[in-house]
């Protein structure tokens, strides 16, 4: 009795292809499997001296103008990071100092914070009518406070406009 698999002409195309692949592997076990797509190589990391200098200056700028508080297990001192950059880029000390001075003379970055107030309670109005738009103010103080400090230690400030209408008009 003949089955579908015993006659090569009646086998489905995918099964015929799988059998051919198996036969090739049995014949050539040491040969690597054929590659369907050409190998993609990563881009070269060999920069021109100008590109390397620009990249080094960008890294210096980033270290000098770090934002935020580093994690406890990360490097906290800028001097350590600068020394690491100098070693990683294989920069001579004189060249490092020149580039560092050049970067320090650049304009400092402007940091912006976008905040969305989800809820505000017990806030007095900021104008004479008692209403204000926006309904609250946020303040940012640079270099003030200790991480984990108590919020109750700060004195609450009110920015309410009162008594702005002259006495004779009321």
UniProtKB/TrEMBL annotation:
Give the SUPFAM superfamilies listed for this entry: C2 domain (Calcium/lipid-binding domain, CaLB)
> Do you know which InterPro entries this protein is assigned to?
C2_domain_sf (IPR035892), UNC-13_domain (IPR052095)
Gene Ontology annotations of biological process type? exocytosis
Source taxon at top rank: Eukaryota
Assigned keywords, A-Z: Exocytosis
Report residue spans for region: Disordered: 23-46, 147-170
A GO CC annotation given for this chain = exocytic vesicle
Protein name per UniProt:
UNC13D isoform 16
| Species name | Pongo abelii (Sumatran orangutan)
């Amino acid at each position: 009795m003949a089955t579908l698999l015993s006659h090569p002409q009646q086998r489905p195309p995918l099964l015929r292809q799988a059998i051919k692949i198996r036969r090739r592997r049995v014949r050539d076990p040491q040969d690597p499997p054929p590659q369907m797509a050409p190998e993609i190589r990563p881009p070269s990391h060999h920069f021109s001296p100008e590109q390397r200098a620009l990249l080094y200056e960008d890294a210096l700028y980033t270290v000098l103008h770090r934002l935020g508080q580093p994690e406890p297990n990360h490097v906290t001192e800028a001097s350590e990071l600068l020394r690491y950059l100098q070693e990683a880029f294989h920069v001579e000390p004189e060249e490092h100092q020149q580039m560092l001075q050049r970067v320090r003379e650049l304009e400092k970055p402007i940091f912006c914070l976008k905040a969305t107030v989800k809820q505000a309670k017990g806030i007095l109005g900021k104008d004479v009518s008692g209403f204000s738009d926006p309904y609250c103010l946020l303040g940012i103080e640079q270099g003030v406070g200790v991480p984990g400090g108590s919020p109750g230690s700060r004195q609450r400030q009110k920015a309410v406009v009162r008594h702005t209408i002259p006495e004779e008009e009321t």
